[in-house]
Structures are given as C-alpha cells and as structure tokens.
Amino acid sequence: MTLDLSRFQAKGTETCFHDRHLGAQIVAGLNGSNWRLADYVARGGYSALRKILGVDGGEGMTQDQVIAEVKLSALRGRGGAGFPTGLKWSFMPRMFPGPKYLVCNSDEGEPGTCKDRDILAYNPHIVIEGMAIAAYAMGVKTGYNYIHGEIFEVYERFEAALDEARAAGFLGDNIQGSPFSFQLHAFHGFGAYICGEETALLESLEGKKGQPRFKPPFPASFGVYGKPTTINNTETFAAVPWIINNGGQAYLECGKPNNGGTKIFSVVGDVNQPGNFEVPLGTPFAKLLELAGGVKGGALKAVIPGGSSAPVLPAKTMMDITMDYDAIAKAGSMLGSGAVIVMNEHRCMVKSLLRLSYFYQHESCGQCTPCREGTGWLWRVIHRIEHGQGRADDLALLDSVAHNIKGRTICALGDAAAMPVEGMLKHFRDEFVHHIEHKTCMVAQTV
Ligand SMILES: Cc1cc2nc3c(=O)[nH]c(=O)nc-3n(C[C@H](O)[C@H](O)[C@H](O)COP(=O)(O)O)c2cc1C
Ligand code: SF4
Questions:
Q1: What per-residue confidence (pLDDT) applies to 12?
Q2: Best of 369, 411, 415 for a ligand 2 pocket test (most atoms within 8 Å of beta carbon)
Q3: Per DSSP, what are the bridge partners of residue 284?
Q4: Ligand 1, atom 8: nearest CA belongs to which residue?
Q5: Tens of pLDDT along 301-326?
Q6: Is the CB–ligand 2 distance for residue 372 below 6 Å?
Q7: How many Cα atoms occupy the beta-carbon half-sphere of 57 within 13 Å?
C-alpha cells in the first residue's frame, strides 16, 4: 500500500522543524524526512542500547545502574502527572515469575498537545531505543506502543520503524548478540480521550471497552492481562537514550533540580508561530513565548500552561514564571502534558470555558456519577451563562459542582473537568458576573 505522508512533511512553524529550540535533544537534527534507521544511527542512535548491553566494547550496565541513572536524571513523566520515571521503574517487581509488560502511551488526546505524534513520525527509533532500555532495566520481554487512533499514518510510520529495528537486531531475540530479548508491537486505539488514562488504555489494549480501572491495584502489580506493567509517555521514553549516553547528572543539569532535562512544549492558540518547541525545563515563559513569535492579535491575557485540564493563569503570573513542574504548581496550575494555550485580550473566558466543558462532558466514560452527571451539569450552566440566561446563584453552583466532582471519581478525568472551571472562576470571575448581570459579553464590549 502506498502511503500519502505529504501532510507530515516539513512545514516550518507548524511542527518541530525550525531552529527555535533551546538545547534540543529529542528533535535535534530532524528535517521531516530523516526518520529512518540509517539516519538515526548516523545521529548516534542505538549507542545507548549498545552501551548498556556491553556490545560496544564497554562493560555494559546492570539493571540497577540503568535505573539509578534515570533516578539521578530527575526525569519526570511527560504524560501529565510528572511522576519521577526512575522511581516508577523501581516499582516493577523484576523477580516476578512469568510475563511482565512495558507500555508506551502514545494516545495524546489532551487538547492542545501535539508533540508525541511529531516524535513518532519524525524520530520513531528514539522511542524504540528508549523502550528497549526500559525493558532491559525492568526485565521485561514484551512491549506495546498504544498509538492514538486518529493518527493512523503515524501508526504505520512506527510499524515501518519497528520492521527496520527488528531487521537490524535492535529488537527481537538476543539483541545485538546479547542475552537480552525484547519484542515490541504497535497497537492503534480508536481516538477516545479517556484511553490515554493508563488503566483505560490497558483495558483497550486487551480488546475491551476503554474504561478506567479502579486503583489500587496499580499497573505495576496488575497491568496488561493482570501482569506487572510499566506505562510511560512517548516523550518520557524518548528522553532515555540521551540520559544513558550522557549520564543522569548531565540531564539533571539541563533543567532544574527535581525537573531534569528538556521538555517539548506545544505552543498553540494566539501566537504568531505555533509549533513544538524543545527547551530546558526552567526556561522562562517569556522566552518560550518569544520563540513562538509572540502573541498574535492583541496583548496577552491568559495562558493555560499544561493542556486543557490545567487551570488557566493570568498574563502577569505567566510573564514571571519559569516552565517547570514545580514553578507552575506553585502558581496554582500544572505543567501537565506541556500544551501551552495562549489567549489574547480578545478572548472571552466564558466562551472559552464553554468549549472546554463541552469537551469533558463529551469524553466522560460515564462510569462514575460525579463525573458523568457533573461534567454535563457544568457544561449546561456555563452554556446558559454564555447565552444570556445565567442566574444569580450560578457561580456558586459551578463552584459547588466542580468541588463535588474533584477527588470523588475513579480516574482523574473528573478532576480534569473541574480544574479549568475553578481556574477560570478564580482569575476571571468578573467576566462571568458580567455575563450574568448584563446578559452580554464584557470582552466584546471592550474591543
Ligand atoms: C483522562 C486522562 C487522559 C490521559 N491521557 C494521556 C495521554 O494521552 N498520554 C499520556 O502519556 N498520558 C495520559 N494520561 C496520563 C496517564 O494516565 C499516565 O499517567 C501516563 O501515561 C504515565 O506516563 P508518564 O509517567 O511517562 O507521564 C492521561 C490521564 C488521564 C486521567
Ligand atoms: S472520572 Fe469520568 S472518565 Fe474517569 S472513570 Fe469516572 S466517569 Fe469515567
């Protein structure tokens, strides 16, 4: 079958093909067509895997040494929660008899986020190498990459890269002549946002309806087919070869304490040059905004700093902040998946929240009452405020519904639906009050 990959060719600012990265590791040297094995090897690819296996003339590394290096690096999961990767790897019961699994989460459904698809389409071998290193460290023989169903071309690209890696002995039995064997398979989902939640992903991978499991037990003890499983995000695995090649300390020093390395931010919304930007964690937001060409269409009003689930922050806070997990959490939001949604002064926050709340009520899997009923309730109340039918007690109602969803659900989608509401009401309450009292938009009147 001939694939039409034309829409994945370099277009400059829409993707990662530009020179406006800082200290790039994952996207360094990519041009849109150099994704093949030979290109990756020419960039130094698979040297980290060969290093740990000791097939490059060196001593090799033990499983504990690899995990220690990842712990030292302060690499934190790039899928949203920012959990320390080395620590997660240490939870895998390596002595467990029978199968254990490694899963890559390439579901990438968080609105605004578009980095994992770039990594998979343009540098797939870096993910394969990162997964092979992780599998070695945790004593795993089988892995899956769960790829979002709406980017089928990326799935096929990854399959092609898997074929190359197998043929060259970087996957399969006795990798590079060593005793280590690892089989890796691609799996495509069907486009549901909830399948990015790790336990819903596992259900979907097993061929069932993608609904989250109650935790505990956590995937480390009860994952795919009930066996110990480690799940990491695409970008998390892509960071690993650099850490092994250069050392955990060097990676840590690229970022900030507790926030090691670089991060790919998808800067979207009202900016002149949207795209994916790889920069060190701890880079000032003002610098990132500059890399994205500055605000388009007016002055900066607000930013959602970590994908649509993250609470919005006002311009003034953002212009003083650095882009790392701890600084953004301290300011009352989260770095999340790294989608930075920039909003200019002409954006109505009621309308913006209406769009976000529609998304969450649509994507709720319906298992738990607070999320199933609450997300629809939030959307309906915001809808009437936006359309001039808001009631005097609606803001108290929104506060109450959001509060009663949070922490009372099986998975974090409930929190993800509630947090944007709380953030908007905290920082832009006056706009909601205006809509209710005057039945018109405050922003529309000022432009
Ligand atoms: C509703 C929901 C959607 C999620 N979607 C994704 C996703 O698309 N990709 C992802 O890597 N993590 C996603 N996560 C987080 C995963 O559950 C999990 O924490 C992550 O894959 C772990 O990898 P990491 O430690 O490398 O970040 C989602 C979580 C929730 C609650
Ligand atoms: S919180 Fe929502 S998405 Fe998550 S399990 Fe409950 S109903 Fe489903």
A1: 44
A2: 411
A3: 322
A4: 108
A5: 999 999 999 999 999 999 999 999 99
A6: yes
A7: 0
